[in-house]
């Protein structure tokens, strides 16, 4: 089941993102670290009603942010569509014990359905240049790879921007 997150879910979400970070670091993918994602980021997501959790047997196993807020890091990207009714995906995470079972697909299907129901022009996101599995995942869903952006507190490597036009 997918539902909106509440403040009491944040500690579990942080546990999931830390487990994801540890798995990625073990694979030499330095995407998430002690600076990101943060409790404060998830709190802000909840206040904006944009954080969702995926549960399995009443346990939170994943989360996703489905936002209409364009982060300033995206300002210089040459997107495929005009800035208007665009949605942004952030902090998609599935606990490593539940990965490779279709749960990320389920969360992205949910996000894309919401965006379409709201007559969005597109969905935009970024993924780490060293995370080839994520790149394949989004490209298989029809997302087009665009420019690179940087998050210096996370990595010296770029993050690739992607957009799915409806």
Key features of this structure:
globular; 30% helix; 4 helices; 166 residues; alpha+beta; Aminopeptidase
Could you please describe the fold and organization of this structure?
This protein has helices spanning 10-26, 39-47, 103-117, 132-140, and strands at 2-4, 51-56, 59-67, 86-94, 122-128, 144-149, 159-165. It is α+β, with helices and mostly antiparallel strands and 166 residues long. It has a single domain, classed as 3-Layer(aba) Sandwich (Aminopeptidase), CATH 3.40.630.30. A seven-stranded mixed sheet has the order 1-2-3-4-5-7-6. Strand 4 (86-94), helix 3 and strand 5 form a beta-alpha-beta unit. The model has no long low-confidence stretch (mean pLDDT 96).
Sheet/helix structural class: alpha+beta
Estimated helix fraction? 25-40%
Give me the CATH fold name.
Aminopeptidase
Q: Give the N-terminus to C-terminus distance in angstroms.
A: 25 Å
- Multimeric state: single chain
The 3D shape can be described as globular
Rg (CA only):
15 Å
Number of helices: 4
Give the domain tally: 1
Outline the biggest β-sheet: 7 strands, mixed
**Widest sheet, order of strands:** 1-2-3-4-5-7-6
Which range does the strand content fall in? 25-35%
Looking at the overall shape, the CATH architecture is 3-Layer(aba) Sandwich
The ordered H/E elements are EHHEEEHEHEE
The total count of strands amounts to 7
């Amino acid at each position: 089941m997918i539902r909106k997150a509440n403040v009491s879910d944040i500690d579990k979400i942080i546990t999931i993102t830390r487990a994801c970070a540890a798995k990625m670091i073990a694979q030499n993918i330095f995407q998430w670290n002690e600076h990101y994602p943060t409790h404060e980021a998830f709190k802000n997501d909840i206040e904006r009603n944009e954080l969702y959790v995926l549960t399995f047997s009443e346990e939170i196993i994943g989360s996703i942010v489905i936002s209409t807020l364009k982060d300033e890091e995206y300002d210089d990207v040459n997107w495929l569509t005009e800035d208007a009714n665009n949605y942004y995906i952030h902090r998609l995470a599935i606990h490593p014990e539940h990965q490779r079972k279709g749960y990320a697909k389920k969360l992205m299907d949910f996000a894309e359905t919401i965006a379409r129901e709201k007559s969005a022009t597109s969905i935009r996101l970024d993924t780490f240049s060293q995370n080839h599995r994520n790149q394949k995942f989004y490209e298989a869903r029809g997302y087009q790879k665009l420019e690179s952006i940087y998050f210096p507190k996370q990595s010296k490597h770029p993050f690739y921007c992607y957009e799915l036009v409806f």
